[in-house]
Write the structure tokens for this entry.
Amino acid sequence: TPGAQPLPPAINDTSSKLVYDDAHPWEPLRPGDIRGPCPGLNTLASHGYLDRSGVATPGEIITAVQEGFNMGFDLAAFVTYAAFIVDGNHLTNLMSIGQKTPETGPDAPAPATIGGLNTHGAFEGDASTTRDDFALGSNFLFNETLFDQLSQAAIDFGSNGTLDINSAAVHRHNRILDSMARNPNFTFVIPRYLTAYAETTFPLAMFVSNQTSDSSMTLNLDDARSFFQNHKYPDNFFRRNGSYGNDEVGTLITEVFELFPDILPGNNEGAGNYVLDPNDPGFNGDGTCYAYYKQTNFTLSLYPDPTDELRTALQQNLATFYITLGDPTCEEVFPFGQ
Ligand code: HEM
Ligand code: MG
């Protein structure tokens, strides 16, 4: 059994470059290839930055998002491990970017799920940009109605009909209000509270081609559809210039949030009845540490009594997750021992 992986290195060159190049052609899905709720990872798989099967190791994901989109190493490592520890296979290091599959190797005993990124409520959550709430429809397939709503926000509020910070914030807010109104199980607490705002910034920061040194953060709707629906880079796509890491995402999330600062963490107790969670810091405290403890406890709930290599792998992967916090003010916890 292979042990858990160490983190891969950060890439050195974070300049802009053509990433839709001859070495990374888009290819349609083969039977069995898996795509899921993340248009970033879907696109990387369909261009061969990730294995085209849609099954990958955390190290491969961290390298691919840097290479293909210039996501910063710190953000990439934290997000990937926050997802991997609850959705991936600790013994094989494999994770599906979509549905559960035997391609990730033998399962650990229940209640471990090893369900891939489609798994609802582990990392994936409600009020997504172009995917439905789990309780209302598919939480991983592209949804034309939601893309139309995004397009309408772009037309009404975006600069020249684009997805920009204003129209993206409108759509983010609308998606939350819609879930509040219609989803009896709507859950909007960390980590989903943070990832919902993060995913709103990602198209602005990483789906805009830098072909003409464009740092405008305005995404036209054809290019948006190319990523969200077709997991495809637009022709001649250049990745952004400079990485999009923790500092950059923090700044942009704050800007998006402050356009509609009325949503606090909570969950519905029946459609239309949103109840706040007083323990969840949201953006008013140390959400990163809170997310670390929550994902760690969630992992423990999936692996209540692991033995042998599985316990060792869990220890190692949780240690790596802690490292991805960078220079945290939170204390490390060792639910599987040290
Ligand atoms: C959504 C995982 C990197 C763009 C998601 C979701 C997951 C996920 C599980 C679904 C969340 C939800 O809406 O419920 C990851 C992981 C990454 C990663 C593990 C590793 C670092 C990226 C990158 C980009 C990106 C690099 C852009 C270049 C998005 C967007 C959404 C999303 C725009 C919203 C999808 C929608 O609802 O339309 N991601 N992601 N992600 N991700 Fe990623
Ligand atoms: Mg979702």
